[in-house]
TrEMBL record:
Pfam families: p450 (PF00067). Heme binds at residue 538. Its cofactor is heme. PANTHER family: CYTOCHROME P450, CYTOCHROME P450 12A4, MITOCHONDRIAL-RELATED. It comes from the Eukaryota. Belongs to the cytochrome P450 family. SUPFAM superfamilies: Cytochrome P450. It comes from Karstenula rhodostoma CBS 690.94. This is Cytochrome P450 monooxygenase-like protein. Keywords: Heme, Iron, Membrane, Metal-binding, Monooxygenase, Oxidoreductase, Transmembrane, Transmembrane helix. The lineage of its organism: Eukaryota, Fungi, Dikarya, Ascomycota, Pezizomycotina. Residues 228-249 are annotated as: Disordered. The chain crosses the membrane at residues 6-25, 37-58. GO terms for molecular function: heme binding; iron ion binding; monooxygenase activity; oxidoreductase activity, acting on paired donors, with incorporation or reduction of molecular oxygen.
């Protein structure tokens, strides 16, 4: 009897949940219909935590449904659909804005430049959904996790560190660390080295640059320990730079920083006190790294306060010193800003400032190895800028703008277009506050309580990225989805003249100027958004551009990159092959690389290869063997 009663109770609960879910779905469908926006119905909210944690288990099962049950809804169950499918779903729906309706949520996806511009300029009508950013508050509130008056305060704190006058230090640090990277990568006297995991190395490269240019700590690369050639950044304690943990620490600075940022996803479980008690080793290590890096930041913050009090000067951009100076925290009775505000911004700028740039360099190298004609054009452009001068003679003011106006910037722009760091830039409408917008002369209503995504599929929208005549599809790939940096070398005017953001307070302004050079192809406003757009656009945009273009210059004045083909042929076998044989083995590597970039990338913070690598080779210029285009 008790057994029957228990099963009856379970059945009643399941029936109630089913009816409630159905009613919520009907309500959301009715709201979607009334908006006038095209919509697709899904059984689940694809960005809910339970689905994100388990979708890879469910999708193979759902794919076994009979063909009559399948449709676009099934393709959209993959949270990475915007990257994998590009503009395809929008074309199937017949609209560049559509709603995704599930029982628990209405989401909107936007791939229309006019609508993107309306959303990014009407920041009070379409705010960031702050609930998505609370997990970035590991050390305190920050520029990314706030809105309104709080955001203005954090923006004023950080903006002075990102003005044009500070980019020379970014340039200098990038020269130093790219040289160090090449000393680790360079071919030996007998053969070229295969780099099995270049993405891991570019992560370290980006971490060390922002540590030096942003925090005044020049970290020593492990392979250069003890060589006495690493300059100490201004004022930094030597205990922060080497492999030995300083007194009071169990991890060195480099290890704590790398462990924390490379395994950031585990910090979402809880604070260090929770992670340190976990039975899982990686959890405990990340918990220790969180505590260690927090302690390092406390020490660096105190060092900067002491330097500021004593009147010591610093080179270029010193983020902590700028934060202290702009916070007024030296006189705590005269400010409401807390120490946690400084540490919170230091952390989030370190996080955002390394992963996106590291990925962009990594993917650029892969794409260039898949398109020799573009790599050769890049090398020629760089050689014209550098004119054979040694790195020690390069000057920021003489070099950067020339790189920004030519093929190096075209490669950077195209990489960020094809593999955008953030698939979906989140915006929202407040519950109960629907918002009107215009698309192609028609008025629509964005429902209140909608989670909006400015979708990276806009970068594959052929309306904004036209193909050359006769090249609409090459190698089975539509032109808008291909890596073709030459598209940026066109001077075709597709938009009005550039107008910088009109901040109501100049203290909010970070880097000024355009995302792309006026000497290159100028996309329609709102159609190119790797750094977002409008008032909340990326404050570190110019920092990243200086890093990438400087790294290209150092790399490609000396070397070329090729896909590694070790899996299919040895060096001796490749040497013995004719051109046709080499192209056949290269194409195997290129097909695999393209498949991995489409199918095995996933997002935690940014879009990255997960669980796979694409090996490449660094070869001296003139020693290339695989000069083909994909």
């Amino acid at each position: 009897m008790a057994y029957l009663f228990a099963w009856s109770a379970i059945a009643c609960v399941l029936l109630y949940q089913g009816l409630t879910t159905y009613q919520r779905l009907r309500r959301n469908i009715a709201i979607a219909k009334s908006s006038g926006i095209a919509y697709v119905v899904l059984p689940v909210h694809v960005f809910s935590v339970p689905w994100l944690a388990t979708y890879y288990l469910w999708i193979p099962i759902v794919n076994k449904l009979p063909a009559s049950f399948k449709g676009l809804w099934l393709e959209l169950l993959d949270p990475e659909w915007a990257h994998r499918l590009g503009h395809g779903p929008f074309e199937k729906i017949g609209s560049d804005v559509f709603l995704m309706v599930s029982p628990s949520k209405i989401m909107a996806f936007v791939a229309d430049a006019e609508v993107v511009t309306q959303i990014t300029t009407r920041r009070n009508d379409f705010p960031k959904p702050l609930e998505m950013y609370t997990r970035l508050d590991l050390y305190g509130k920050n520029l990314v996790s706030t809105e309104g008056a709080d955001w203005r305060m954090h923006r004023k704190l950080t903006a002075p560190s990102f003005g044009e006058r500070n980019n020379e230090l970014v340039f200098t640090e990038t020269l130093h660390h790219t040289d160090a990277l090449l000393r680790m990568w360079k071919p030996d006297a007998n053969h070229n080295r295969t780099l099995t995991d270049p993405g891991n190395d570019t992560m370290s490269w980006a971490l060390y640059i922002i540590s030096g240019a942003g925090f005044d700590i020049r970290v020593t690369w492990p392979h250069e320990e003890g060589k006495n050639q690493v300059d100490q950044a201004d004022g930094a304690d030597s205990g922060f730079t080497g492999s030995q943990p300083p007194p009071g620490h169990t991890m060195n600075y480099r290890e704590a920083l790398s462990e924390l940022l490379h395994n950031i996803m585990w910090t979402f479980i809880g604070p260090p006190s929770v992670l340190l008690k976990s039975p899982i080793k990686v959890h405990r290590k990340v918990g220790r790294a969180m505590s260690e890096w927090g302690n390092y930041m406390d020490e660096i913050l105190q060092l900067k306060k002491d330097q500021l009090s004593s009147g010591q000067d610093a080179n270029g951009m010193d983020l902590f010193r700028a934060l202290i100076r702009n916070s007024g925290i030296m006189d705590e009775e005269q400010t409401t800003i807390q120490k946690s505000d400084l540490l919170g911004n230091a952390f989030v700028l370190m996080l955002a400032g390394h992963e996106t740039t590291a990925n962009a360099l990594h993917y650029s190298l892969i794409f260039l190895a898949m398109r020799w004609s573009s790599q050769k054009k890049l090398q020629d452009d760089i050689d014209e800028v550098i004119q054979g001068r040694p790195v020690s003679e390069w000057k920021y003011e003489e070099t950067f703008q020339k790189l920004f106006n030519g093929m190096p910037a075209a490669v950077m722009n195209e990489t960020l277009r094809i593999l955008t760091p953030i698939n979906n830039i989140p915006k929202s409408t407040a519950p109960g506050r629907p918002q009107q917008f215009t698309m192609r002369g028609e008025q629509y209503t964005m429902p209140g309580g909608t989670q909006i995504s400015l979708c990276c599929a806009i970068h594959k929208n052929p309306r904004y990225w036209p193909a050359p005549p006769g090249e609409e599809v090459v190698n089975g790939i539509p032109d808008a989805q291909r890596f073709r940096p030459e598209r940026w070398l066109s001077k075709s005017a597709t938009a009005e003249s550039f107008a910088d953001i009109a901040y109501d307070d100049e203290e909010l302004r970070g880097p000024s100027g355009e995302d792309t050079s006026s000497n290159l192809f100028r996309p329609v406003k709102g159609s190119y958004i790797p750094f977002s757009d409008g008032f909340r656009s990326c404050i570190g945009r110019r920092f990243a551009q200086v890093e990438l273009l400087t790294a290209f210059a150092v790399l490609f004045t000396q070397y070329s990159v090729e896909l590694a083909v070790d899996e299919w042929a040895s060096d001796e076998e490749v040497e013995a092959m004719d051109e046709q044989g080499r192209e056949a083995v290269w194409r195997k590597a290129a097909d695999r690389a393209w498949w991995l970039l489409k199918k095995k990338t996933a997002s935690i913070i940014t879009l990255q290869l997960r669980g796979h690598t694409i090996p490449i080779r660094l070869v001296k210029k003139g020693g290339e063997r695989l000069k083909f285009d994909y």
